[in-house]
Amino acid sequence: MKNTSKPKHFTENSKPSRKENTPAPKTKKPAAKPERAAAAPSRAEKPARPAAGTPRDQREQPAGKTFKKADGKAPTKQAKGKPARPAGARDERQPALRSGQVLELQIISNNEEGFGVAIHEGTRVLIAGGLAGETVVGKITYVGRRESFANIIKLLKRSPDRAPSAACTMGKACDGCGLMQMRYPAQLAWKKEMVSRQIRRYPSLSGAAIHDVIASPSELGYRNTAKLVVAGKHSDPVIGIYRRNTHDVLEIEDCALHHPLINKVVKAAKAGIKKGKVQIYNPKSEMGLLRYLVVRVAEPGNQVMVVFVTTDQGYNEMHHLAKFIQQAVPEVAVVAQNINNSTGNVIFGHKDRSITKAQSLKAFIGDKSFNLSPHSFFQVNSGAARIIYEKVREFAHLSGKERVIDLYCGIGGISLFLADRAREVVGIEVVEAAVADATANAAMNRADNCSFEAGDAVHLIDEIGEEGGADLIVLNPPRKGCEEKVLKSVAAINPARIIYVSCSPETLARDLDILSGLGYRTLEVQPVDMFPQTVHVEDVALLEKVQDLKA
After folding, report:
1. Which residues does the annotation mark as catalytic?
2. Which of 104, 166, 410, 468 pairs with 368 at a CA distance of 20 to 30 A?
3. Sign of the CA dihedral running 268, 269, 273, 276
4. What's the Cα-to-Cα distance from 74 to each of 87, 94, 401, 523, rounded to whole Å?
C-alpha cells in the first residue's frame, strides 16, 4: 500500500509512497523535454556544403548513404558485413517523425501510464489524453528512438468512455492524472484489466479470483497531503511540481485532486512570499531559503499542517510567513519548519523545529484516531484507506485467539484495525519514527495488545518464529515489493494465512508467484481505487497455506 512511487502528477502522488522522498514523478518517458525536438548534429558532424557548380556525381557523399553513379547504375561497393541490396529493391526505411509535425492518428490501446498508443508508419506514438478507439489530430511533441509523444489538437472520433468535460484544464501541461479524461466507471474497468494482466502472467496464480475494483468514496479532492516545490523569485513565486524528468516547475494552484484547503494554503503562501520578500532557493546557484511547501489536512476535522522546508533557519521570514498563512487560512493549526541544506532532491532534512505551539494533528480513519507529525506517513486518501483496512480485517477472519504480525506497519493503521479481534498484534517497521508514532497511536486507541518493533524485517521475523510464530502475517511493503529473503522468512514461520497489501500490481504478482513456490496459494485479489484519475491502484490479496503441495 505504501506508494513509493510518486503518482506522476504529484511530487508524492503519482504512484503514492512512503520511501520515495523526491518530488519528481517517475515514468518511462525519455529524459529529454517533451517539447524539444531530437538533438541536431553539431557543426563538426555535419557534412561540408559542396562548392557551387560542383557536378552532383562528384560531390562528397555523407557516410551511410547510397547514391547512383552518373551512368545511373548503383555503386558496386557495399557496407562491410551487410548483404547487397537486391536489384530493383526499394528503400524500406520509414520516414522520420519530427517535433511539431501534425498527423492524424488512430489510438489502438492505452498503456499502463494512461497514454493512448498509436502506430504511425511503424513508429509507436504515445498520445497524452488519448483513449483506445479514438481518432485524433495530434502534434508531435517529442521524437525518441523507440517511441514518440504527441498532444491532441482535435478529436475526430470520440470514445464512449471519454468524460463529457475535463475536471482539470492543465491536462496538456501536467500528465499526472493519466486517466482524468476517462469516465470513472471506465477507469475502474481499466484498472481491473491492468491488475488481471499482471496476475495472469504467472501460471501459479491462474486460480486466483480477481474482483471488480472498489471505487473511492471521492473521485476528486481526495488527496489530504501535498509536497510541492517552491521556485521562481519572491516577486513572482511558483509553487507546484516538477515537469516530467526536468527541473522545470509547473505551477499547481487549483489541483482537482487536492483537498480544497491545500489549494487555499498554496494561494496564501504565494501571497505571503511576495509580501515578505522571502528568498526562494535556486538549485543552480544553491542560494536562497525556501525550497518546499508540505501541506497536510487531517480529516474529518479539516485542520491543516504546513511545513516549510528551508536551507537555513530564516527565523524572521518563516515566522512572518506562518502568521500570514494562518490569518488567510484559519484552519491552519500547525506550522513547522524542516531544515534541509543538501543539494539533492530529497525533500526533508534531519533538523525540525516548531513555529506554532501545536506540533501535531489528530486524524481519523473509521473509529480509529491517529496522531500526525510532520514526518508521519499517512494514506493520502482517507476514505479509500478505510476500505482497505476493513477488507484486510474481513480477509483475516479473526476469532480473538490469533497472533498477528503486521510487517511494514507504518504508523499502525492495519494493526489497530485488527487489534480488537486478535489476541496479539506485533507491528514491524524499519523507520524508528514511524514505530514511535505507531506506539503512541496504539496507546491513544487503548489497543493494549499491540506492540511495535523497529529493525530489519528478516531478523525480527526469524525471532518471532523462534518465539512461537504467528497465525496471520500481513505484508504491506512499498512499491518495490518484498525482498525474496523476507518472503522466505515469512513462509518459514508457517502462518495459516498471509494477506498482502500492495500499490503495485506488477511487484504484487511477482511476490505472489514466489510465495506459491513456498507453499501458499493465492485465493483472491481485491483491487481498491486509492488514486482516482491516476493509473495507480491498491490491491489486497488473500493467501492460504497449502497443506499438501503435491495435491
Report:
1. 503
2. 468
3. positive
4. 9, 21, 86, 66
